[in-house]
Write a structure and sequence with these properties.
Length: 457
Amino acid sequence: MQTIYNTLSRLKEPLKPIVPGRVSMYVCGPTVYDYFHIGNARTFTVFDMVYRWLTASGYRVDYARNVTDIDDKIIERANANGEPIGALTERMTAAMHEDFDRLKLLRPTFEPRATQHVAGMLDIIRMLEDKGIAYRAPNGDVYYAVRKFAGYGKLSRKNPDDLIAGERVAVDTNKRDPLDFALWKAAKPQEPHWPSLFGNGRPGWHIECSAMCRAVLGETLDIHGGGWDLQFPHHENEIAQSEGALGHAFVNLWMHAAFLNFDSEKMSKSLGNFFTIREVLNKLNPVRGGEEVRFFLLRGHYRSEINYTYDTLMDAANALMGIYRVLKDVPPAQGIVLDWAHPLAARFKAAMDDDFDTPAAFAVLFELRDEVRRSGDAHLSALLKALGGMIGLLQADPAAFVSGAEASINVQALVDERNAAKKAKDFARADAIRKDLDAMGIVLEDKPGGVTEWRKK
RNA sequence: GGCGGGUUAGCAAAGUGGCUAUGCAGCGGAUUGCAAAUCCGUCUACGUCGGUUCGAUUCCGGCACCCGCCUCCA
């Protein structure tokens, strides 16, 4: 049985879908104003893994991941670039898809965009106003009265009184309480806006997710996820909005992915210590890079922070290479039905069912790698590939992955020349060629039977 | 200040009240013209001080250090 750590209860709980056999999952997606970094990628890779594993486990998963395409940062960036907002968000959404594809992320079932759900947001805001939870402020904004929602703070375990006492809550005379947050922002000159019974304006940040969850997945979700930093205030506010307006439970299981750090500090745009996925991938081999990053990101448990360095990434890449080598040497049998009774398959499943313990699952893959190597068994090799496939790994062509490139005539000519030199016992010449190739990043492997294989480092 | 998470061998990273996690690197050996790859073997663990227990890295408490949220943030 699948268990999942629920941020709400701080306990591992069994997954009990509202509709048996089906799982609804919403993950807060990116704000598309810039390329995103490997820390952002971690969260989406984690939930892609969850999506794949639940699907492999037999659930029909309705997976929604939104695109936030209206927001202060987008407006700011578009103005700085001197381009229309729509052009910026289109460009960045396309870039996002490119990056996600390279990391082998599946497209979610639904990818709603905030600007397409403004009516749904206004609907919820109106319900909140009718219940006296939302109010119109003198400046034309509509705010959520946090004190009217009894459960406020239950997710992040923050006490509203403590928050008031803190220094970080900004004072705003338009708000009745400093904790109140904007549901609707009155239109300002040169900003996009929509008509509404609250006047022209645009939505606050948190309301979009409440509206899109409801529109796409329904009023109560099995799973809602996001990065750890979204717990407060974003997810807390989503709960307040949805439960405040609709009057029933919003989400059964809250999942939060831990940070990816750099120099043991959270990687973030505001700290400036980030690497975009593009930068990282451009330093890696084009054939292998995407899967290497994915493997690296899933090597740590999703609730543990991981530290990004080139060395830890290379460590993961070497480990992945070891598995692909075995898949190349022992081609997986075709058309095999996965045998869950196999002890290693059972252990893999047990690890994944236990709150998605990918590090433990990987340990099983390594043991299986050794078994395949030892036995040369194509069925076991197929099992290895199939298990990896359940979390989006090991599906590349092994020969291409190991060589790191499509066959190159240039390299092959040098390899042939070296083999001729070897036959003539001209080892000096043979070594010189190997050294040249090494300088080009090509490593040779002499195999039994006079066959020489090569691969990119 | 409030709340929360963490500290496992050279590095990375799971897990467990008593039974070799695992990966990468290192070292020794086999193999190889030399390498690479592979195989065999092998060395480093559970922050600190107490408590509970027959027994604690694992449970409880104190301490130290690190990190996060409380403001946009994956």
